[in-house]
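Our example copied in:
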Amino acid sequence: MFSILLRVARAFWSAFTSRCQLAARNIALEHQMDVLTRPTRSRPRLKFELRDRILLVWLSRIWSGWKNAVRIVRPETVVGWHRRGWRLYWTWKSKRRGPGRPLVPQDVRELIRTISSQHFVTWGAPRVHGEILELGIDVSQATVAKYMVRHEKPPSQNWRTFLDNHVTTLASIDFFTVPHFNVTSNPTAEWTARQITEAFPEDTAPRYMIRERDGVYGDVFHGRPKAMGIEEVVIAPRSPWQSPYVERLIGTLRREALDHVMLVDENHARRVLREYLGYYNCRSLCFTSPCVWNH
């Protein structure tokens, strides 16, 4: 019994759908004929009025086979009309209908400006908002931030100024070798510690020394910076970017000097490095922090 009713319902729905589709097709064809026979006043292109667009958009929403029946306009154009209509609708819908949020009274605005300018220059919006609430005035923190006096802050220092301020308290050390020639044969911890003493005589030692995790820094070396009042800052393993300045110096020495010269002996290597170091420190666009080199 249920299957018979289901077949009857399907047949009825099929007949009803077929008649609706036929009616929609007839409407689409008759409307297109009306547009084609409409006087165009010698215009080369068809002129679609607002009612034409509304009708085609309506057919596209209720009839799945509308694309096969519409011939005078592309389906993409009809879809664009539909989207444009929705944009216009929501633009109209979102328009302000009334006068909007009431304005904050003038005396409250003046009070906010007075508190934020005269006696409480360092206060921010949350603290000024708390004081306003203590006075029994119910306003939001956003309103307080809107009407606060904006104080001019001194410009923040640039990176060059920061380096100039701290250059006397920082030092960075590292080792590098010249291909096919060792400038220093078998550097030891004693030799490395002696370089630190010679590089910073008397009271010129920095406060911090950045270095990598190299085995050449032994117990003898650790005692020398400590005795000079230098705190060692050891970078993380395989993290050369944590010591960028000395790494940049080494890279510059290789790219601009050592990779272009065939070194003969140790004296030749020292002479090349000494001459390039003078040029490196004296050029106008040099490295921002002075480098230390043992001649």
Summary: The chain is about 55% helix and 5% strand. The chain has a mean pLDDT of 77.
